[in-house]
Design a protein that fits this description.
The protein is mostly beta strands. The chain contains 1 helix and 8 strands, in the order βββββββαβ.
């Protein structure tokens, strides 16, 4: 598992902002089976939300890839227009994003693969 609690500037993530993870083309998490992103509160609880959505994975059927093959995932309180499939709702006490990789491939095990920074928009 890989967890992020800070944005690209080193600031703690909060529900006041929207964040983006932008995986460049060919840079998705190296997983033999699948990967997933989940948001948690400070007590490691799932974030309850009105959308009944608690994770996004590489197997999510409604992900929208950019024309260049990259993947943008938005994390925040309100669904972005036209990108609901790429949106992970975050509640008021959201404090961390966790990436799970099932069947990690060599680059993950050797730590040569690095996830993108969590960028505050």
């Amino acid at each position: 598992y890989m967890a992020r609690a800070k944005d690209q500037n080193g600031d703690s993530i909060t529900s006041e902002h929207t964040y983006e993870l932008h995986f460049q083309s060919g840079q998705a998490p190296p997983a033999k089976y699948f990967w997933s992103l989940t948001v948690y509160d400070q007590y490691a609880n799932l974030m309850l939300n009105d959308y009944d959505r608690y994770a996004i994975s590489g197997n999510s059927k409604d992900l929208i890839y950019e024309d260049d093959g990259s993947l943008r995932i938005l994390i925040g309180g309100k669904p972005p227009e036209g990108m609901v499939g790429n949106w992970l709702p975050a509640g008021e006490s959201f404090t961390r994003v966790t990436l799970r990789v099932y069947g990690p491939e060599k680059a993950m095990v050797e730590r040569s693969w690095k996830p993108p920074q969590l960028r505050r928009l």
